[in-house]
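User: Can you help me understand a structure? I only have the sequence.
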Amino acid sequence: MRWGPVGWGTGRQRVPANSPKHKQLIALTLDIIALRKAEAKD
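Assistant: Let's start by predicting it. Here is the structure, written out as tokens:
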């Protein structure tokens, strides 16, 4: 997954930055980052 000027892209797939799906992806990514940080602390 990478962040681009067009929106959230996984390969060819593009999600507009203002779409609900995009917000879900951001929320999921933040959850994963938070989990990894929590695991690193233990």
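Now, to help you interpret it: The mean pLDDT is 73. The helical segments are 20-41. Let me know which part you'd like to focus on.
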